[in-house]
Amino acid sequence: MPRPTVDRRRVLRGALGAGAAAVAAGPLAACAPGSSGSSAPRRLSATPSASARGEITIWNRSGDLFKVFDAAIAAFRKAYPDVKVNHQAVDIDAKLANTLITGTDLPDGSFWDDAKIGSQAEHLYDLTDLIAPYRARTSAYKLSVNTVDGRIYGVPWDLDPGLLWYREDLLEDAGVDPAGLRTYDDLLAAARALKEKNPAARPLHMEKDPFLGQLWLEMLAGQQGTSLADAKGRVRLDSREYRTILTWIREAVDDGLVTHAEYLKQADLAALENGQQALVPWAMWWSFAPQQLLKRTKGRWRATQLPAWTPGGARSGAMGGSSFVIPAKAKNPELAWLLYEFLCFKQPGYTAVYGPSDVYPKGLNTSVPSYTPARRADRPLFQPVEALGGQDLWRVAVDAAASVPAAAPIPAWWTRSVDYLGDNLQRLMEGKMSPDDVIDDSTRKIQRNLVDRA
Questions:
Q1: Rounded to two decimals, what is the model's pTM?
Q2: Contact between 397 and 370 (Cβ < 8 Å)
Q3: I need a surface site. Which of 54, 104, 149, 442 has the fewest CB within 10 A?
Q4: Which phi and psi (to 5°) does residue 39 adopt?
């Protein structure tokens, strides 16, 4: 997520798409897992030959990531000179879902947020057979969020592990050793030490935007191997894991340890620059802040593993993410798969995406690949980050990525649940609701207004 926007509906990720012309090889195998009728998902199992030729249209979001993929697609063109790729910048959030439903003017492939894939599975190719050779070496989390009824509908691209971002100078002044922050109780103790050193400090960032706040909550839940819904779409907010998180949040709020601000808006940036905030448990893509936005404190921030909820527990969870999809009515789906296989699973492809480029001279460092062979600690795809004091962020991130647990598929109603859980989480952070109130009220409304009406 190179330049994360703070638009609450767009923060998950960005960039890619494809469309139209001659087919290369093999018939399409159609199937209807768990459903029937003309809208049943179709299975894509044919793979083009090395001499594939034809034309595809690929959709991507505009911005830096479009430029990164444009350069990577140039590497694909060299490997497959007879495949023409029309790479287009499109407002995917506004256009893709409607285009899938109408079946007109479709690309051959598109980049899309993981959270949105499950709701459109009936309009996408089932890619299970094609993913199979790479499945054992792909992040279990990314596979799980792309799975609906046991079938895979997205080509996993990025993995966004959660990290603990901290001001090295402030922790040192307060006598806090970052290596000692092994549990979330340790993190509260560190926040208290920072506040004792500076009574004006509110060291812990907590998110004021309901959508991002809920996304952050899911990262913390994911560390414990749970999520808002189970594999069958049943709400499981009423659980020990969520109650533990919400109780921890309320304790931090009651102790005056929290800066409640919107992600990288003016108030948030001011609190980061003036030393009020020093601890930010957030996705890897927070690295954007010290590289592009923070001026006075640039070079003072560092990253380490998230704390665990229990000693020895997972030290990371995923926050956001995107994959590639192939519409079920695409004209040249096999060629779209050839491109995505190259970008995600082939060394020249993922190196072209994450390695040094004109856009990111030292490499793309706001996420890591979901494909394990691309995440070798001894073969970094991007270089140490000067804005983090020259820290080797690659090694920190790949270690965190390896500990991200698998998850349940993201339910189609997840985004709409923000109106209940996301909003109630804000009330908890404001001290206006208890953990049990958040759980009871959110569960009841999500079940009644979303699950029962699905």
A1: 0.89
A2: no
A3: 104
A4: -90, 5
Q: What is the pLDDT of residues 294-320, one digit of tens each?
A: 999 999 999 999 999 999 999 999 999
Mean pLDDT on 111-128: 92
Of the given ranges (335-339, 389-393, 406-410), which has the lowest mean pLDDT? 406-410
Answer yes or no: is pLDDT of 103 > 80: yes
Residue 29 DSSP SS3: coil
Which SS3 state, helix, strand or coil, does residue 194 take?
helix
Pair 301, 290: CB distance under 8 Å: yes
Task: Report which of 205, 202, 246, 208 is spatially closest to residue 226, judged by C-alpha positions.
Answer: 246
The single residue listed with the structure tokens 């699950």 is 451
Collapsing DSSP states into helix, strand and coil, what is residue 125? strand
Contact 106, 59 (CB under 8 A): no
Output the CA–CA distances (angstroms, integers) from residue 401 to 17, 140, 213, 377, in the order listed.
Answer: 26, 10, 21, 11
Predicted pLDDT at 40: 56
Output the CA torsion 183→163→426→232 (10° steps): -90
Is 260 in contact with 295 (CB distance < 8 Å)?
no
What is residue 39's predicted lDDT score, i.e. its pLDDT? Answer: 52
Given this model, what pLDDT does residue 346 score? 97
CA distances, 210 to each of 164, 196, 214, 261, 419 (Å): 21, 30, 6, 11, 8
Residue-wise pLDDT tens digits, 159-202: 999 999 999 999 999 999 999 999 999 999 999 999 999 999 99
Exposure string for 194-206, b = 16+ CB within 10 A, e = fewer: bbebeeebbbbbb
C-alpha span between 111 and 211 (Å, rounded): 21
| Length of the chain (residues) | 454
Tell me the C-alpha distance between 216 and 133, whole Å: 32
Contact between residue 46 and residue 24 where contact means Cβ atoms under 8 Å apart: no
The answer to whether 106 and 330 are in contact (CB under 8 A) is: yes
Amino acid letter at 99? Answer: T
Query: Could you give the CA distance from residue 321 to residue 2 in angstroms, rounded to a whole number?
Result: 12
Give the residue with greater pLDDT, 51 vs 299.
Answer: 299
Burial class of 215 by CB neighbour count within 10 A (0 to 12, 13 to 18, 19+): buried
